[in-house]
From TrEMBL:
The keyword Amino-acid biosynthesis does not apply. Residues 76-113 form a coiled coil. It comes from Trypanosoma cruzi (strain CL Brener). Keywords: Coiled coil. Residues 57-127 form the J domain. This is J domain-containing protein.
Amino acid sequence: DKERRRENYRVRKEIRRAYKEHQKQRGQLVHCGRSCEAKSKQVELAYNRLASQVDRELYGVLLDAKDTKSKRSLDAADLKQAYEAKKKKVEENEKEEEDREMALEELKDAYDILVNPEARNYYLLYGMKPPEHMRHMSARSGGWGQEISLGVYKNRVILAWLDFLHDYIGLWGETMVILAALAFVLSRVPTALRQSQRLLDDMDWEASVAEIERSGRKRDETTE
């Protein structure tokens, strides 16, 4: 399991590096037309899809608990205390630098998501990590807009109910709402997967074209 986590950690780092480089290059453009904007949106969507994958159950990462469902009622203070204790344990016991960095990243990721009510509800509803900007900002009306992330107004209403149920009814009420929303979510999964695959195929094709162009320029330089 640890070797698989290492490999996923390395892939995430490479994806993050490539995405930042793409953002940097785009920021240097004086003018970006409609086609350029559309391509940038595709890259951003593909990045968010890949970055949303969950390797380990987040409550398990933060709390080292097998029965994580019973821990969902912990408040922000409890989560912070667990985070600080686990962080100290990792820093003291993990000798390999890469493994230490990986464990600290997983831990910080889990804490940032679970301590934020909107990000936590997104994770519980979809089984995925929310977009990075959602982990640090309020997604209620007046903020950046829950509709942008979840696509439709009904999902924002679901998240509001999840907050209410989590605070006043507890785990079982929250679970019932999640189960009720599951059918709707599952109906969208095949389409989302097909869209993600098409985006990844487009990115692979663009990378191949760029490689061919570089090879052609090298041959021309050699001929000259």
